[in-house]
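User: Structure please.
Assistant: Input sequence and predicted structure:
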Amino acid sequence: MSQQPHQHQPAWGPQPPQQPPGKAARGKKIAGIGCLSVIGLFVLVIIISVTADGDSDKDTNEAKPKPKATAAAPAEEKPAAADESSQAPTLSAEDKAKIREDAGYPPKPDAATAAAYIRALDAVDTDIVHGKEEKALSRGAETCRSIKEGNNRDKLIELTNYRFSSPDHPDGHGTATAGKILDIAHSRLCPDF
């Protein structure tokens, strides 16, 4: 009797070695990762080339001379309309003040009020402001907002101490100083709260 060849093996030649289970699966995963890497590289090249082409079009468009204006269509009218639509709308001072008020903040102080507030803080301890006046004004506005929210004094002192930290006082200046800062912010920035 002759032996019948296995269904998947040719009748001639040596038998292929048996691979341990899982090795073929790892080979497929590695091949898949390699294919994905090639595809990713291809996509990256396409993106770069499209971007580069877009940039070169912009350069060539800017280099082209603009057509002269005719009586029917002046050259200045079209760019002005395009500029207006591409710019973000600006808010008036009244709109900004209304937004601050709606958010619970006091009105933005004028220069004299801001300077008096900074001087009062410096009189307590120069490390409260530590050269960062805008930051001190912002923290004062936040303190006023906390006052308007109706927090009790102990909570306000805790929040003020947390807000008014500095490199030399990373955990705040303590409750006694925070109470003074709270009173200064209230009297100088938001006396109506």
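The two ends are 107 Å apart (CA to CA).
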